[in-house]
């Protein structure tokens, strides 16, 4: 058992902390301890084996070094379309590479690229084999603390490149494989139903047909598990398969003259039901959550068949070891933690209630399980989703029985009778389920979700460590140690105010916070008229930290600064624009000086209208304890000269948002001498077509000993101001080793 725990902990250390002082310190500590305590030797062996497994998996499956010319020149790519992405038909495709520049990809590696395609290129569908001339670059995107981590997602999905298809040389339309035929027939069976997205998703594991609004609603209602193939679904499926096999066996044995007295038929039933359910997982294209759930059910079945007395902790440890042996990078998937903690909670409740006659009632036991799940999964829900469903307990009391007794049998019946008609609604099941979901959404949605500012990872880990120690009688006293650590973490001094330069690519969005009140300077860009960086990057930061957006300043109307106006209006009806823009984002900002908690906000430009929109940018000085920051928009040399003449030494600030993203028409020597910053913050895209910041601009900053920090390399820049000092945090420094290794930060 110690070897299992050593392996599990070794995987965590290797995936998250490899090549850090924490990793090497722990390894040295284990080596020293095993010299004095022999049982620790097994722990060390498991730890070392985990390092070997993670390293081997990384080398075989998660690393690929292309010829450098592939990133500099137009390349020839051979591959298979694995996914069509985007709201516009075929606007983006994901291709699994077979060869790049006539160099074949090893069969054991999966190398993918996300490619934009021209409008005149023939429509591509999943499964098509293509040969194309492409312009590739490394898959690298924005990096922020509280928004979706595209790079980690790409690492898990083995997407190495993004780029553009320039010319399609060869296109072989795909013949539908078994999986695609299954999906098409399944959709054909359910497309006329009100809840077609639900039946289709449960049957195929494909969530692409589920509307985004519906996804949000079911998560808030606490039934998000209906959107993915979870352990509950696999368990129900195995249960159904078990009784189907049992029924078929009973019919067969009653007809054939075979004596079955000496056979343990339960072993046969369980084995065949596991095989049948695995075929379903195969048709669903092996979703990670389904594989994990199937392994758990298989291990539980093995324990049942062999009659072994295995403790809950041992069973979960063995299951987790098997999962991480298959893929240790599953640790990067939130579903791993949600599913295993959910499993542990359900099994623990069942164990504790099995000997008590009062809890033998199915309804009471289900109620206890749901209550326990609400408590045990709440920290994870808050950490990943910034809130917890307060009606999930009530809703799941209805949903879980419906899944096993009504929905799954209904799906099977519809699939079996699809050839007769897809419009038949047996016993009005679809109508009643749809009406029930509509009622729950109408009456419960407004009160269903309790928002919560995001917990730190340390708090979540300490919470589960405390719970685990409390459940083990011999170690309960040790729970005081993590409990003290958790309390101490909240006693750490908090900054008086904080600046966050969000990584929005080429554009600007700076969030300044004091005592949970926020000033937002610019919104970033909006692409394709639907992809708003305010909505995707800045708003998640505001919501995760539970901030009140008091003021918003739009520096000027360039789209890389004001791209999220529609989304800002939807968020607060432009209430945050009233102070500096009279509620109209098209107005130039007003010259004002106001206080917001611990900081002073002073708009100092434009004092007159300039001919250039860039030079009309709103310039803001924010001052507080131990420093100030000057926000400059896209001002150029002329505005800089007038600012120096008008304000002189008033411009002096410790932090400067580099004007115009580092363009050579800005950051004049006289302006830098007036501001005298210690730090210059550059907000720009990594793949900058304008090659910003300009070489001469960097030389000017260097000549005045001003340190430049660039969002293209650092991701989100956080500066925390305390009473007499400030600290800098960079989002990319928080990235785990293996993702860093992929992108060479």
Estimate the helix proportion, in percent. 40-55%
State the end-to-end CA separation.
Answer: 38 Å
Count every helix, treating DSSP H or I runs of 4 or more residues as helices.
26
In total, the number of strands is 23
| Coarse shape | globular
Q: Beta-sheet strand percentage?
A: 15-25%
Instruction: Tell me the structural class.
Output: alpha+beta
Structure description:
There is one protein chain. This protein is of the alpha+beta class and 745 residues long. Helices cover 47% and strands 17% of the residues. The strands form 5 sheets. It has a 7-stranded mixed sheet. Helix 5 packs antiparallel against helix 6. The relative contact order is 0.07.
Question: Tags for this entry?
Answer:
745 residues; alpha+beta; seven-stranded mixed beta sheet; six-stranded mixed beta sheet; 23 strands; globular
Secondary structure layout plus pairing:
Layout: H1 2-17, H2 21-34, H3 39-61, E1 75-85, E2 92-100, E3 103-104, E4 112-117, E5 129-138, H4 150-157, E6 159-172, H5 178-190, H6 196-204, H7 212-220, H8 231-255, H9 265-283, H10 288-306, H11 312-326, H12 334-353, H13 362-385, E7 387-389, H14 392-416, H15 429-448, E8 449-451, H16 457-471, H17 480-491, E9 497-501, E10 510-514, E11 517-521, E12 526-527, E13 531-532, H18 533-544, E14 548-553, H19 559-562, H20 565-572, H21 578-581, E15 593-596, E16 599-605, E17 619-624, E18 627-631, H22 637-647, E19 655-657, H23 669-675, E20 679-682, H24 695-703, E21 707-710, H25 711-714, E22 717-721, E23 726-730, H26 737-743
Parallel strand pairs: 4-6, 11-14, 18-19, 19-20, 20-21
Antiparallel strand pairs: 1-2, 1-5, 2-3, 2-4, 5-6, 7-8, 9-10, 9-22, 10-11, 12-13, 15-16, 16-17, 17-18, 22-23
